Amino acid sequence: MSISHDQMKIQLLPHSRHQGAISNHYVLADITPALIVQYRDELASGTTYRHTQRTPATVVRYMAALSHAFSIAVTEWQWIDDSPVRKVKKPSEPRGRVRYLDDDERARFLQACKESTHEWLYLCVILALSTGMRHGELMGLKWQDVNPKDGFLILHETKNGERRRVPLSGHGLELLRAHAKVRRIGSQLVFPSDRNPQKPIDLRWHFEKAIEAAEIEDFKWHDLRHCTASYLAMNGASLAEIAEILGHKTLAMVKRYAHLSDGHVSNVVASMNAKIFGGV
Length: 280
Description:
hpI Integrase, Chain A, 280 residues, 42% helix, DNA polymerase, domain 1, three-stranded antiparallel beta sheet, 6 strands, 10 helices, disordered N terminus
């Protein structure tokens, strides 16, 4: 999508790598909600460069970019009076995935990690479960951002672009303190690769082997993050607390875990009622 200031035209165009992309240019005044609906539907029915069906989430992101461009044209440049995107309904996105390990699965999986041929797999999985860090955040950790003495990590490169302080305690902290005693010379990374110390290790093969050995189905590395959030919810953490720990700016991303804290919420309501109506 591109906007030309001098010609006041807009190009409704998804990334050129997408097959079947539409590349017509329009004068801003000619872009109507109906036209955007047409492009929205064509995007939704199209395929990606990998020849897979384009997801509603992808269409929503394109529409968000287009909406932002029109908002600037309205509020800052005053080229038009209103945004036509505002009148177009976005595709409904499926509810976020919630896949976490139950107690039995977790025990089998952690045992398989301990028995892995890679000595760091168990530590990395424990840290991921303990903190909810994304794979890239964990693998990008540098020693100057780790404080094993006081029990916290500092993440500078996060998905939302904001620095995040991650508390660490218990088993994960103990393992990290032990790991800190045998740092790799010539690398700032906490988990450097043997082949190239300036790059992090790649545990994907070892992770998949541990999943296979534990006989666990439909589980990916990112689901460790879902485990953290789910365990927090089941242990009484509020959605706001979960969002802060995982580094989400809003509660929208953590609402998928709300049902796991129903028992906690019920207890809070029962406690409130007992206090205010107990003497009635």
